[in-house]
Every structure is written in structure tokens, then in C-alpha cells.
Amino acid sequence: AQTVTQSQPEMSVQEAETVTLSCTYDTSENNYYLFWYKQPPSRQMILVIRQEAYKQQNATENRFSVNFQKAAKSFSLKISDSQLGDTAMYFCAFDDNQGGKLIFGQGTELSVKP
Amino acid sequence: DGGITQSPKYLFRKEGQNVTLSCEQNLNHDAMYWYRQDPGQGLRLIYYSQIVNDFQKGDIAEGYSVSREKKESFPLTVTSAQKNPTAFYLCASSRENRVMRNTEAFFGQGTRLTVV
């Protein structure tokens, strides 16, 4: 069975600094999708960034970028120039390519401090 | 505006009672999902449905039931067999495109269920 592991339950970063959130996964599939979702205090889940496994280039969305290491099954999220509005729970998710079912990690609670 | 609507936002249930959580989407998405969120455990899949009149159990289906009679609607019933139902429940939907595999999921705002 596929699993997703986020080993950092909590992290904090100073405003304007850079922070990296870790995620590892386990699968025997070759083609799949990986996602980072953000859940602010409102509890609304928001897609941050998406990576397709067959693409070697790391995805980037403004201040958010990923470091996708397929052989190591690692998918970390880097947030540059952190802002107070980035304070949220961040979830790594894996699409197991078996019908669009998303598997989530345990989450990392990120606090951005002024 | 297109989106997913969950209702109610807060729900209280007495022990031994069944309760139904509503989830409606107007995104014309084929696939819909129910997740349960507990502190420190992330999101766990309860049930999912890829087409009308069909659904599959997720990782923690015991004590729950669903139906998918319409494309737009995927209600979740928490039965009295669910021993620890107090949790935050999230509904999601995605466009199931097997050619492009665009499986980005859109989420509702959640329902907080409390057993009293």
C-alpha cells in the first residue's frame, strides 16, 4: 500500500526567511502525481503546488517550489520570502493512479513569526 | 460560482443516533471523496465515488455509509456503529480525466461533528 510520511509535526520560520517542509512516500508505481495542500485556520484546503512524476523539472508557483527526488521518493516544499499568511497546516498528498484517490501525510504545522 | 458546499458547518449527535452530512458540488466533477481529519493524523479516506451509482470503501469505512444517486451529491451517513465519530469531515471532488490525469481535488469547508 502507498504511504506518505511527513516527519516534521511543527515548524516555525521568521517572516521573509525561507523554510523547507519534508515529505517522503512509498509506491511501486512509476507514473503518479504529488501535491502540497495548505490548510489555514479557516480549515479550507487549498492546493499549493502539483508535480507530475514523469516530469523531471521541479514545479514552481511564485514563492513555492518543490524538490522532487523520484529515486529517493522525496517531495519537499520550499517556501521563499515567508509571509504571515503562510501560517497554516501543510499536507503532502499522493495520487496513487488507481482512480484519483489521494493519500495524505500527517501534516506539518507551519508558523511564520513577525 | 462553482464549488463544493458542505452542510452543516457544525453538527451535534447523541450517542446511538445516525446522522447525515451533506456534500454538493456544481463543478461537474465525476469523482467525489469523504475524508476524516483528526489531530496529528492528517486526512484519512472514508469512501470515494468515481461515477454515479458506484462507490468504494476507503481506509476507514467501518461505521459509515454513502450514496451517489446524483453526480452533484455525495452524502455521508455516520451510523451508530462508528464508535468514535467526533472529528472534522471534509468532502472533495475532482475531474476524473483518464487521459490527462488531472486529479486536482477541490475541497468543501468541512463539517465539525461532535457526539454529546
> What overall geometry of chain B do the principal axes of the alpha carbons give?
globular
Distance between the termini of chain A: 41 Å
Would you identify the regions of chain B where 5 or more consecutive residues have pLDDT less than 50?
none
Order of helices and strands of chain A: EEEEEEEEEEEE
Q: What low-confidence regions of chain A span 5 or more consecutive residues with pLDDT below 50?
A: none
Main sheet summary of chain B: 7 strands, mixed
Helix content bin of chain A: under 10%
Main interface pair? A-B, 24 and 25 residues
Number of helices of chain B: 0
Descriptive report:
The complex is a heterodimer of chains A (114) and B (116). With 114 residues, chain A is an all-beta fold. Chain A contains no helices and 12 strands. In chain A, strands 2, 5, 6, 10, 11 and 12 form a 6-stranded mixed sheet that branches. Chain A starts with a strand and ends with a strand. The model of chain A has no long low-confidence stretch (mean pLDDT 92). Chain B contains no helices and 11 strands. The N and C termini of chain B lie far apart (36 Å).
How would you concisely characterize the structure shown here?
The complex is a heterodimer of chains A (114) and B (116). Chain A is mostly beta strands and 114 residues long.
